[in-house]
Amino acid sequence: METQANDLSKIICTLNQKIEDLSHLIQMQYIEFSKELSKRDEKINDLEKEIQSIKQRKLIEEGIKEDNDYAPIIANNLHINKMIVKEKETKWKEIFEKFVLKEYVPTVLIPNKNGVLISSKKWNKEKKPVMIKNLGHVVFLVTNHQYFEISIQSTPVKLMSFGVVSSLTYKERVPIGQEKESIGFNSNGTLLLANGSKKKITRAWKSNDVIGCGYHAQENIVYFTLNGEKIVQVSTVFSDWYPAIQPSGFTQFTTNFGETPFVKSF
User: Fold this and answer.
1) In the chain, which ranges are continuous DSSP H helix?
2) Which DSSP helix (H) or strand (E) runs through 151?
3) What is the structure's pLDDT at 139?
4) What are phi and psi of 43, to 5 degrees?
5) Rounded distance, CA 242 to CA 244, Å?
6) Looking at residue 95, what is its pLDDT?
7) How far is the C-alpha of 186 from the C-alpha of 89, rounded, in Å?
8) pTM above 0.90, yes or no
9) C-alpha dihedral over 182, 183, 185, 188, to 10 degrees?
10) How many CB atoms lie within 10 A of CB 64?
11) CA distances from 5 to 9, 11, 19, 125, 139 (A)
12) Inter-residue contact 250 to 187 (CB < 8 Å)
């Protein structure tokens, strides 16, 4: 009887040990499972954050695309009067150029294939820069600045003038700046304004000089340059301008709307 009791005690002790070992094993497995569960939760949180970030970027891109649908504006709606040249015994002629959007370059002046600087349809201070998405980045395309240059090939023997006019019916044989709503820079080195004022601003033009004219639409400022240096600027209340040249009879010159680098730095 005593032997049976001892055997039973040993069995119970063995069972208790196995139960203790099993409990320890379960506890260790629970700890490992908790660690794996924590890692899984961290991965889920990271994935949720990444998904949220992707959604936010997508919303931003869709918002930019919706708010700045620039393709039809540039491709279909915008145009500019490239240049008006008064020919002898003829009327002013107007050349319209359609814009061609080229790859973005880090400059405020972006010429199309014809050398026309990209701008809004009308040059006025209400026009704002257009925000576009290009190569994965948001960039601002400044559209309110126009500039062009002429290179003098021979010293003018007669008075030559160039600048901007607001009308296509500008009178013949009248220097730019003398008629209403026009601003001109004459080859004798004078600035001529429509209010009748005339001011000597530099020396007379000579062969190999490069004369420039620019317009800041938002600031409503017309300015002139000589060999790349700004020499004068004029504030104006008018907002629509056409580049214009009044050449003298035997003066040779070339124009540059961006086909080649400007002498003036931007």
Assistant:
1) 2-67, 70-72
2) strand 145-152
3) 41
4) -65, -40
5) 6
6) 29
7) 21
8) no
9) 70
10) 15
11) 6, 10, 21, 108, 91
12) no
Per DSSP, the three-state class of 62 is: helix
| Residue 150: partners with Cβ closer than 8 Å, 6 or more residues away | 162, 210, 211, 212, 245, 253, 254, 255, 256
CA distances from 224 to 110, 173, 185, 200, 246 (A): 20, 22, 7, 13, 16
CA distance linking residue 33 with residue 28, whole number of Å: 9
How many other C-beta atoms can be found within 10 angstroms of the C-beta atom of residue 68? Answer: 15
- Which residues, 6+ apart, have CB-to-CB distance to 223 below 8 Å? 213, 214, 215, 216, 230, 232, 233, 234
CB 187 within 8 A of CB 248: yes
Domain covering 72-256, topology: Jelly Rolls (2.60.120)
Domain edges within the chain: 72-256
Whole-Å CA distances, 236 to 21, 93, 124, 180, 182: 95, 25, 11, 12, 10
Please list the residues that pair with 255 across neighbouring strands: 150
pLDDT averages per 10-residue partition of the chain, 266 residues: 67 77 79 79 80 64 44 37 37 30 30 32 40 41 67 80 73 73 88 83 91 83 92 81 71 74 78
- Burial grade of 40 (CB within 10 A; 0-12, 13-18, 19 or more): exposed
pLDDT value of residue 58:
63
Given this model, what pLDDT does residue 189 score?
92
